[in-house]
Amino acid sequence: MSLFWRTFFLLALLLAGGVFAWLQTLRALELEPRAVQAAQQTAGLVNLARAALKTSDGISRVALLKSLTAEDGARVTPREPKDTWETFETDRFSRRVGQELRSVLGEDAIAARSVNGVKGLWVGFSIERERDKTRDFFWLQAGPAHEAGVNRETLLTWTGIAFLATLVGSVAIASLINRPLKQLSFAASRIREGDLDSRLDENTLTSEIREVNMGFNRMARELARVEEDRAVMLAGISHDLRTPLARLRLETEMSVEDEEAKRNMAMDIDQLDAIIDKFMDYARPGDSQLRPVLVSPLIDREASLFRDPSQIRITSRVAIDLQVLADETELARVFLNLFENARRYGRGTDTGVAEVMITYVKTGPWAIISVRDHGSGVAPEKLSQLTTPFFRGDAARTAATGAGLGLAIVEKSMQRMGGTLELANASDGGLVAHLRLKRAI
Predict the structure, then answer these.
(1) Which of 10-14, 202-206, 419-423 has the lowest mean pLDDT?
(2) Domains (range + CATH), the chain
(3) What residues does the HAMP domain cover (predicted)?
(4) Can you give the three-state secondary structure of the chain, one letter per residue?
């Protein structure tokens, strides 16, 4: 999970927990007074109706019941033995209302949410007759203003709004927290690609981010200075080494009479010169200029440098019109090193000749060019190490005369051109290098 989403979920969880805690607290604090108030209002209506009914005789009671029904939407009806009703006390709030009604009206008071299928807050009460001490039973239906209960739709609406605001706030806060880190990651990726001019804002208000940005900018400046010093040093080394090598070659040609010794000395000088070229190629700054390059003619040109068919034979099946976005010099260096690697280490065990096959496939905006030899391949556990500078895959390769930089140069060149290198063993033997480059459209 990325830092943004981790921050978002933690903030959302914190804020949602806070909203829920406040909601529960407000409900707990509001429940008692609201239940008491609702019960007292309803009990007041019942007591008013009880007092009026108690002082009226049977004849005037009918008119009184009609008059009470018209007042404030309340309704008083006689309670019959056959009446059916549903209890009002189903949750914490309604139970508290019921307790308060019984404490005011007496233990025989009944709170119901419907009577004979008619919904509302119904209160059952009784009136004692003074003549015979018997009781008359009535129902009072409170009007809408006195219907006690929790408005769940309103509660859910405001709770949903609160959680939605929580999510939006979490996204905004997480974005603000992660913005400088995202800028730092982007600048670091640009430096990894060789752009040492990347700089971050050193005037940001957050002190920790400001210190990180200042440290990053100092590092970028130091890297740029080191890169510049390295380029100057390599140019000097190349010049200083090649000058005595040229003198050695001249002295060898003029002073050594033994032809075999002269030939061996010239080969050693050529090898030293080639090793210097490898070092220079690997250390070359990463400033490739990408443009459309025809791959097939470039392969043919580099393959023509390997003229000895007793050592290597190169076959290309790349379409003549295949174009990729690349630096022509860098791409030529890639194929040159792959061919040289195959010539040294990819020879067949039967023929002693390195048979190299070049094929390609198109996949979306990419072209994958495969360069395969038919040698013995490499141990699977060592494949990932082949692009490490100075690494050789086995004992036989240790005795080779190369600098151990060929595949490292290939990988670095591919990175400069925005491509990738993947090395694998072929199913029927040999090493395959897959070059993934952007197609030129």
Answers:
(1) 202-206
(2) 3-153 (3.30.450.300), 202-287 (1.10.287.130), 289-438 (3.30.565.10)
(3) 175-228
(4) CCHHHHHHHHHHHHHHHHHHHHHHHHHHHHHHHHHHHHHHHHHHHHHHHHHHHHCCCHHHHHHHHHHHHHCCCCEEEECCCCCCEEECCCCHHHHHHHHHHHHHHCCCCEEEEEECCEEEEEEEEEEECCCCCCEEEEEEECCHHHCCCCCHHHHHHHHHHHHHHHHHHHHHHHHHHHHHHHHHHHHHHHHHCCCCCCCCCCCCCCHHHHHHHHHHHHHHHHHHHHHHHHHHHHHHHHHHHHHHHHHHHHHHHHHCCCHHHHHHHHHHHHHHHHHHHHHHHHCCCCCCCCEEEEHHHHHHHHHCCCCCCCCEEEEECCCCCCEEEECHHHHHHHHHHHHHHHHHHCCCCCCCCEEEEEEEEEECCEEEEEEECCCCCCCHHHHHHCCCCCCCCCHHHHCCCCCCCHHHHHHHHHHHCCCEEEEEECCCCCEEEEEEEEECC
